Amino acid sequence: MNRNQTRKKSSDVVVVLTYIALVFFGVIAIYASVYAPGLTFFDVDSKHFRQVIWFGVCLFAGLIIMVLDGNFFSALAYFIYAISMLSLVLVIFFGQKVAGGVSWFNLGLFKLQPSEFAKFATCLMLAKYIVRTDVNLKRFTDLAWAFGIIALPAALIVWQGDSGTAIVFFSLVLVLYRSGMPAWILYLGIALIFLSLIALLFENQYLLIAFGILGALLSLMNIRKNRRIIPYIIGGAILFSVYVFMVNFAFENVLKPHQQNRINVLLGKIDDLKDAAYNVYQSKIAIGSGGFSGKGFLNGTQTKFDFVPELSTDFIFCTVGEEFGFMGSFILIVLYMVLLYRIVFIAERQRSAFSNVFAYSVASIIFCHFVINMGMTIGLVPVIGIPLPFISYGGSSLLGFSILIFILLKFDTERYNIVR
Amino acid sequence: MGDRGRIIFFQILFGLVGLVYLGQLFALQVIDDSFKELANDNVIRKLTTFPTRGLVYDRNKELIVTNEPVYDILVTPRLVKNIDTTKFCTLLDIDKETFEKNLAKATRYSRYRPSNFIKQISKEQYAQFQEYLFQFKGFYPQVRTIRKYPFANASHVLGYIGEVSDRHINKEDSYYQLGDYIGLTGIEKEYELNLRGEKGFRYIMVDVHNREQGEFDAGNRDQPSKAGREINLTLDIKLQQYGEQLMQNKKGSIVAINPKNGEVLAMVSNPTYDPNLLNGRERGNNFSILSNDTLKPLFNRAIQAKYIPGSTFKPLVALIALQEGAIYANKYFKCGGSYRMGNMVKRCSHDHKSAGNVPVAIKESCNPYFWQTFRALIEGNENRSPDQALQVFNNYLYQFGLGKQLGIDLPNEAIGNVHRPEQFDRTYGEGRWGATTIISLAIGQGEMELTTLQMANMMTIIANRGYYYPPHLVRPIPSDTTKYQFYTSPNSVSVNKEHFETVIKGLDKVGKRLVEIYKFTDIEGLDIAGKTGTADNPHGEPHSLFSCFAPKDNPEIAVAVIVENSGFGARYAAPIAGLMIEQYLNKQISERGKWIEEKVLEMNFINPKEEDEAANE
Q1: Where do the H-state alpha helices sit in A181-256?
Q2: Which of B15, B35, B306, B342: disulfide with B449, CB 3.0–4.6 Å?
Q3: How far from B459 is each of B297, B343, B359, B579, CA to CA, in Å?
Q4: Is A288–B17 a contact, with Cβ atoms under 8 angstroms apart?
């Protein structure tokens, strides 16, 4: 056993290769999305070249991580989390205002987005907390603390005015589930999401009638066999009704108009192609017109001629879809699937619970980005402005995801270590 | 649930989302084809390329209608931002209200698609505007051509072009689209198909701001436009110009035809207008000014006005009577200053010796002679009722191109008026009219109206001793088979050549006498043979008429001139005809001609008082 503790493994080849493939894919896509006649690949000022430079920075960061001891991260988890939370607060006061939000430090040469780094800090912190021997997620107070660790950065980021990025943190609830949170909480969460959608989709009065009829039917069915359950059925129906009102109230009063629009577009309540729906419409046209094999590298017209907004960042997948078609999209999705499954596989081969929780955190965050970003470009998810991991242009985002992957790889090389 | 179950939960969750997304992508990219079209709608614009309209030359290859580029300014309202309106308006010479109005109109059409903001600004104005174009986002120019008339003459012949009407677009072929130009009158209309050419199109790609991003598919699907054909008029623009000059301050018209082939050498209608007025941005304004003008400058008097021919009709009566045997060349009719018919006594207009033959009767323009001739024609044949006899008479007139359209290549040619026997039946009752009832016809009065073109064509037939080519303004185009056939085939009249010689003798005498009396032209070799006329009309002074041809023995030009409300006889029309002939045959005006020319130019029958004002201008 002692022998195993010090035994080092080399980095996981599958993750490394998928990671490189995705970054490479990203640079190509960024190049295509900013391409205009006359631009060469080695144009230093262009986005794709900057992304290449950032990739260099990522590799450098990776090198440092690989040199450090894995225990370094678990040891400093509280500290890193604290620093990260501080940076989230500081950016509100000293950050650069961009389009109504303050998420960026302007460092002259480049800009940094602390919320991207808060992800790995929160992952470390969450792992650190969960693996404490006195913590049991089946206990309400411990669960509440775990939620708190997730909610704190999310709240600060909402304060910055970047609710999209904040949503990502809640994907860590999946990690809690894996680490012992009672399943019914997850099911309840899923049920509430469905109920929310139904609440937004249909008028309140119809839903109330439906709940009433459903409650009455269930009550009648159980009136002979299980009379005691009836109060619960009635109570449930009432709670559902109240929830529906709450959802609609929140939708009207908490969400900003543009956010309401995005959801309404997704639910098909708005057909107006001018504002909210326009982006999704153009995005679908770009992807859809790519056909099976795509229009060819640099031949995309929707993407090249600015029909799709935020092309190199949030809507980068449009370039892939248009120029490389279904084949390109297929390859990209397969790459993500390989990465996600491999991370789950890696998570489960860790002896250290800390590494296991961290790995699931990485998988959950990447998965969440993937679902939201790609989903919005193909019209399955409301428009939420977060990047596609490893692909979207942006140094902070690339570096943030890279650090997650590198720390994961580092832990994996030390997977026979139990104590952390 | 144990760990195993929770791991599987993750795997199923990831796999499920992956499959759903792949499914959606498969649906978007492989199954649904509509996105390709939508993408093309986004990016590809089909632009019409407008052909240049055919140029127009006169008979001497002088360019008389050409094209000039003008610029339409188009606007895409969505892109209009932060514009220095004052500067913009100054550059385009419009006021702020117009700016707001036009922008609102374009916005109503579409915020995203470009539409016309202001039409047809000049090259010069555009040059100024272009320098600052970059400051006016959302605006861009489109070049097209309008007509330009270097000579500013022959406006009635040339006609004008204008935007095609909605009705036309709905009714006619699909060639025209809103905003296209089409010939509306004159040869612009008549030869529209030749002149317009063929529109082409090209495909370009645009970005989201509608900025051009190069050609689509390397231009392989483009179709270039075909320029319109050029057209050669039969007009002599110098002669036309001269005619218009001579007609200044007079109402009336001149038609000159080359008898040898029916080519119209000049067609003047006065008052006229500068054809450049009905072209370009001010067309609408100018058109309403011109169409409200009481002098009717838009009215082509040469083919649309109907005149009583008066005595110019007499040669025709003589020809028909000779051919029908009602009289013979040396027939004597007593004049004696008056002529008794039943209980009516008609007087001759002037004292002269009774005519002993047709030429003298023509020379003297003896009314009694032609009354009696006409009576012989209508009532002299026992086998014919007056009704039948008039029908025979009319049939000759139709052969001479009267009472019908001659088919000149201009729209709206008037028919004139040749009364049919049934019409007289209706007026007087069947069988209740005879030669005396309709005796005015004998001297070209009464129910008889001709266009100037018909009068000139009548002279053409006499000059040719019996035939004519339908008069036309454009050199027949061989590929235009129907028209070519029509204009190059002679039409004969069934009057024998010797009768023409008899009549021409009379016309010659008229010509010689005019030289004596009016000295209107005694240039050697002109040899004008013609007939004067006075058309009484109820609205003021009679019209002065003269129709003629020259030279008598080898005619090269036939001319009819009408000067409205100028007074009796040949005094006004004849000198004008003479000058036209001299100008055409000699290409210059002699010393003596200059003197007459001066008198003609001084004549003013429109508004004599304006002369002083005009001099002061």
Answers
A1: 183-201, 204-222, 230-253
A2: B306
A3: 27, 36, 16, 17
A4: no
Please report the domains of chain B, with CATH numbers, ordered by start residue.
Answer: 237-284+299-611 (3.40.710.10)
Dist. CA B562–CA B569, nearest whole Å: 11
Phi, psi for residue B66 in degrees, rounded to 5:
-135, 180
User: What residues of chain B lie within 8 A of the CB of A341, using their CB?
Assistant: 11, 14
Domain extents in chain A: 2-179+343-413
Q: Which of chain B's residues have a Cβ under 8 Å away from the Cβ of A291?
A: 29-30, 36
- B171-210 burial: b if 16+ Cβ within 10 Å, else e: eeeeebeeebbbbbbbbbbbbbebbbbebeebbbbbbeeb
Which of these, B467, B464, B483, B463, lies nearest to B475 by C-alpha position? B483
B22 reaches A (C-beta below 8 A):
yes
Q: Which of A174, A287, A340 sits opposite B29 (nearest CB)?
A: A287
**Interhelix angle for B3-26 vs A353-377, to 10°?**
20
Q: Rg of chain A over CA atoms, in angstroms?
A: 23
pTM: 0.69
Calpha distance A418→A188 (Å, rounded): 34
Beta B63-75 vs B139-148: how paired, if at all?
Answer: antiparallel
Q: Looking at A262-306, which runs of residues are DSSP E strands?
A: none
List pLDDT tens digits, range A231-280. Answer: 888 888 888 888 888 888 888 888 888 788 777 777 777 665 556 678 88
Could you tell me the end-to-end alpha-carbon distance of chain B, in angstroms, rounded to an integer? 109
Confidence of residue B234 (pLDDT cuts 50, 70, 90): very high
CB A381 within 8 A of CB A266: yes
Which residue of B lies nearest to A333 if distances are taken between CA atoms?
A: B18
Distance between A294 CA and the closest CA of chain B, angstroms: 9
